[in-house]
Amino acid sequence: METALHLLAECRFTRRIWDHIALWVQEPLLKHSNWRIANTAFEWWINITTTAGTPWKALRSLALLIMWVLWNERNARIFNRKESSFISVIGKIKEEVSAWIAAGARPLGVLLLRD
What we know:
Protein name: Reverse transcriptase zinc-binding domain-containing protein
Low-confidence stretches: none
Radius of gyration: 14 Å
Oligomer: single chain
Number of helices: 6
Order of helices and strands: HHHHHH
Helix content: 55-70%
Mean pLDDT: 92
Distance between the termini: 41 Å
């Protein structure tokens, strides 16, 4: 049975996505090996986006954006039998990040520009 936690955090494909994005934005908290154990998708989301010293608004925006892209990819695979490559999904996430920043998501832009 597929659960939200599996789709968003436990699936091998999904974990590769999170690890790649963690390196891209230089945020170790998003790397799956640094996640605390969670029993639900909500608990997992709170764990990865609520840690002292991290830009929580930016992390929450980025996490929601990634989850949205993953959900759309899942639906395309199940309902349309259309599978995107890993690189294509990463590209979609990066395009969405750029669009969100252009639309005014300043904390997300700060996350990408920090040293």
